[in-house]
Amino acid sequence: MAADQPGGASNAIRFVHDGRVVSADHLPPTTTVLDYLRETAHQTGTKEGCAEGDCGACTVVLGNLAVDGNRVEYRAVNSCIRFLPTIDGCELVTVESLKSPDGRLHPVQQAMVDCHASQCGFCTPGFVMSLFALYLQAPEPDRERVLETLSGNLCRCTGYRPIIDAAQRMGSYPPPPHWSREAARSAGHRDALRAIRRNRALKLPDFHAPRTVDELAAAMQREPKALILAGGTDVGLWVTKQLRDLPPIVYIGEVAQLKHLRRDAAGIVVGAAVPLTDAWGAIVAEFPELAEQARRFGSPPVRNSGTLCGNLANGSPIGDSLPILIALGAELELRRGARTRRVPLERFYLGYQQKDLAPGEFIVSVTIPARSARQWVASYKLSKRVDQDISAISAAFVVRVENGQVAEARIAYGGMAAVAARACATESALIGAVWNRSSVEAAAVQLAVDFEPLTDLRASATYRLHAAGNLLRRFYIEHGGGTPPTRTAHAAAASALE
Ligand code: FAD
Ligand code: FES
Ligand code: FES
């Protein structure tokens, strides 16, 4: 695609790549960034491994103007599940971009070479780009930060140690003239994005990116069967893995009002276009107990594209944010045309993949109530792999104990039914009871009243029921319950796994 002068054709996708404004048009709106790079731009440094966001081989870095318009935020994303029109107005950085004009490798690349961090090399560009995004934020990261950054990158050759060594060495090289932290923050990158910033919606055949929530509401009223696209980390796989044709797409990522994230008297208000990275950041600031849940949600590239409201709207039975937001009493703001309404999240799900959402209606935001005093909060995820794995079962507990008695108990599970739901019989068994082992055991029995779990490839119904009880016991032990679980509880869960 020929490079375009800034301000070029209004309805071609426009983004900055290697300092040039590139216009891409006449491509289907579900063309992925990866396919554009490899098949249209013939830049094949970015690889395809899984085409579903799991392996990291396709990682690229996107620069977006921050909400205040004054700086560019660079984040790693999976290009294999990112549709090209959604990078309109962004800066695209690929592995070919990093080398200096004089041919010198970027410190990240040089460190990978010097630490022998590449064997077959297939995963390497993805690792380089994940580490490059980290380099721009923290060129001398600690091991923990490196492991967290790379949780979305798989390598089958190196055993990872040399890659981790390279990550912890990259900051020791002289900063490159090109793509140093300072250079990335220079006005040049910002101004290049300001120059292509749109004030009117991008409209392509079967793709519309409204700029305001009124425009979004009108678009959805005109075309109630249109597909709302947020981060595309669920929708992307419908195309790349299920090979589905999509209805016309209305992309909400450019709707200014949906990008707002604020903390007010009601609690944390997360707009529908707020990436998971920022949403989880705000939630963990209020509820530090949820840090592990946040860290184990997908990977950094998935959290940089995906949105919290997309997880809620997708409504998978094992959607990880659902149990904890239900237990915390979260509420959705929905809009259809000019009418808005509020729905408690726990009443939004009517059955498997059935939601209280009318045609043309969309989620504007989710509000998570502010923490109240003396609440114990926990969220647990059980999956086969720690990182980047789908839950077999997840559980969330919000309990308040006063004078030794349970004053409040809100308990929700995912993976135990067609939708994430509260364990009402279990809660009733606890409320008013003394907070001790026997009342917890009595409550655990009620889980079989609350749920009739399924057996599937991730877990058996027996395992799920035992594990659900054990997660309640774990919560008790971690919150004043002192005594370690009895052998029977562990043995029962272990036998269910055989
Ligand atoms: P999209 O894919 O854009 O949309 C998802 C659905 O929600 C679509 O039906 C869309 O129409 C609808 N939708 C989106 N926004 C709105 C709105 N405002 N109003 C109405 N409808 C809307 N999920 C987990 O729960 N836990 C995980 O650990 C996890 N790991 C993942 C790992 C990988 C590699 C991948 C690819 C996905 C993973 N996911 C996980 C699933 C996915 O990332 C999440 O569900 C994510 O939150 C979806 O958000 P999104 O913005 O990408 O939604
Ligand atoms: Fe595997 Fe994109 S190709 S994450
Ligand atoms: Fe071969 Fe990593 S070097 S997959």
- The outline comes out as globular
Biggest sheet details:
5 strands, mixed
Give the CATH superfamily of the domain at 256-497. Answer: CO dehydrogenase flavoprotein, C-terminal domain
Bound ligand species: flavin-adenine dinucleotide, FE2/S2 (inorganic) cluster
Q: Give the helix/strand class.
A: alpha+beta
In the CATH classification, which architecture of the domain at 256-497 applies?
2-Layer Sandwich
Strand content: 15-25%
Instruction: Please report the distance between the alpha carbons of the first and last residues.
Output: 56 Å
- How many strand units? 20
Please tally the helical runs, counting DSSP H or I stretches of 4 or more residues. 18
CATH class of the domain at 256-497: Alpha Beta
Strand arrangement in the largest pleated sheet: 2-1-5-3-4
Helical amount: 25-40%
How would you state the average pLDDT, rounded?
93
Q: Per CATH, what is the topology of the domain at 256-497?
A: Enolase-like, domain 1
Low-confidence stretches: 1-9, 483-498
Radius of gyration: 24 Å
List the SSEs and their pairings.
Blueprint: E1 13-17, E2 20-24, H1 33-40, E3 59-65, E4 72-78, E5 91-93, H2 107-114, H3 124-137, H4 143-149, H5 161-169, H6 181-184, H7 187-196, E6 202-204, E7 207-209, H8 213-222, E8 227-229, H9 235-240, E9 249-251, E10 261-264, E11 267-271, H10 276-286, H11 291-295, H12 300-305, H13 308-314, H14 321-327, E12 331-336, E13 339-344, E14 349-351, E15 354-355, E16 362-369, E17 375-382, E18 393-402, E19 405-414, E20 421-422, H15 424-430, H16 437-450, H17 461-481, H18 487-497
Parallel strand pairs: 1-5, 7-9, 8-9
Antiparallel strand pairs: 1-2, 3-4, 3-5, 6-7, 10-11, 11-16, 12-13, 12-16, 14-15, 17-18, 18-19, 19-20
Bound molecules: flavin-adenine dinucleotide and FE2/S2 (inorganic) cluster (2 copies).
